[in-house]
Amino acid sequence: MKGNKEKDITQKTLERYNDVFADIINVLLFDGRRVVTEDSLTEAMPGSVLKMDGRIRTQYRDIAKYWHNSKIKLSMFGLENQTKPEKRMPLRVFGYDGAKYVRQARKENSKEAIYPVITLVLYFGYNGRWSQPKSLFELLEIDKEIKPYVNDFKMNLFEIAYLDREKIDMFKSDFWILADYLYQMRVNREYAAGDRLIEHVDELLLLMTAMTRDYRFEETINELKGKEQVTMCEVLDIVEARGIEKGIEKGRQEGIKEGTINVLISLVNDGILSVSDAAKRASMSEESFRDVCKHKQINP
Fold first, then answer.
1. CB 42 within 8 A of CB 84
2. What pLDDT, on the 0 to 100 scale, is given for residue 158?
3. How far is the C-alpha of 70 from the C-alpha of 123, rounded, in Å?
4. Can you tell me the mean pLDDT for 77-98?
5. Burial 211-247 (b: 16+ CB within 10 A, else e)
6. Mean of pLDDT values over 251-273
7. Closest Cα partner for 87 from 37, 161, 125, 138?
8. Which residue has the higher pLDDT, 116 or 208?
9. What's CA 104's distance to the chain center, in Å?
10. Which of 41, 168, 218, 247 could join 209 in a cystine, given CB atoms 3.0 to 4.6 angstroms apart?
11. Are 111 and 131 in contact, with CB atoms under 8 Å apart?
């Protein structure tokens, strides 16, 4: 898995579970109160189709769900994941929400209630705060004469790594592990795993791989297959073991190369090989080979 595209995919997978989705909404919007329940959520099509300039265009949200109460569609929640600040993000969110309202406006004769659309932008960066516009007014260049007639639009932005510790500990789903990781990395620059059980092991480890670019998280998935109870402590034990194995192998390979170079230097000193031939056999340039000899205080 490589790049921001894969990060986006893994985030969607974890958040698509109703327990995780409801947990995010409840903590960020309702201060941890269990207002949204898992069984009150249904999938919404993340794509919105618009006809512009005579052409059909489709906009895709990261993830969206309808929230039902007493069998009445009350609202639609959307989540947008960002690993880095994006200048035009207010326009994107405005487009997503606007497209959903346009679809409702087209049902003029429908008896369905018109429902609100709420989008949350989740920012996962921990090396710095969100540094780009959070509203249309911050993004647009508006003449002061017309500004009173321009409607502003503000994003619901949540910087997960910068939430208060008390807020982070309100999460009850696997999202707590991600939020805890981001918080610790921001504050301590290192991560100490907790002993909370992981509900969605594969999805969380794929997400951790995407966030850290440490592919050992993903590699542990097969080793954990069949285990009923898994914690991040156990995962990190496996990750650390893999790191030690790779370190030993790397050291072994470097030792072999070091020995080969020493033999080649001896052959050059004995007049059996030229510096050029020895450098080729060591897969080095002549200049690099001479630098190695100089470092070893040997003059070929």
1. no
2. 97
3. 33
4. 92
5. beeeebbbebbeeeeeeeebbbebbbebbeebeeeee
6. 66
7. 138
8. 116
9. 32
10. 218
11. no
Contacts of 211 (CB under 8 A, 6+ apart): 7, 83, 124, 178, 181, 182
Structural tokens at position 67 = 């929230």
Cα separation, 25 vs 44, in Å, equals 16
Range 215-243 average pLDDT? 81
Beta bridge partners of 41: 67
The answer to whether the beta carbons of residues 230 and 201 sit under 8 Å apart is yes
With residue 260 as reference, give the H or E element that holds it: helix 232-269
Six-digit token pair at 36? 């949204």
Q: What is the pTM of this model?
A: 0.73
- Give the pLDDT confidence score for residue 54 in this predicted structure: 44
- Distance, CA of 28 to CA of 158 (rounded, Å): 8
Q: CB within 8 A of 60, min separation 6: which ones?
A: 46, 47, 48
Query: Phi/psi of residue 58, each to 5°?
Result: -120, 130
Decide: residue 35, CB within 10 A, 0-12 exposed, 13-18 middle, 19+ buried: middle
Q: Which helix (H) or strand (E) segment is 263 a member of?
A: helix 232-269
Instruction: Return d(Cα 77, Cα 100) in angstroms, integer.
Output: 11
The span from the CA of 10 to the CA of 237, in Å, is 23
The better pLDDT of the pair 232, 299 is held by: 232
> CB of 41 within 8 A of CB of 49?
no
Cα–Cα distance for residue pair 240/219, rounded to 1 Å: 12
Least confident of 20-29, 145-154, 173-182, 188-197: 188-197
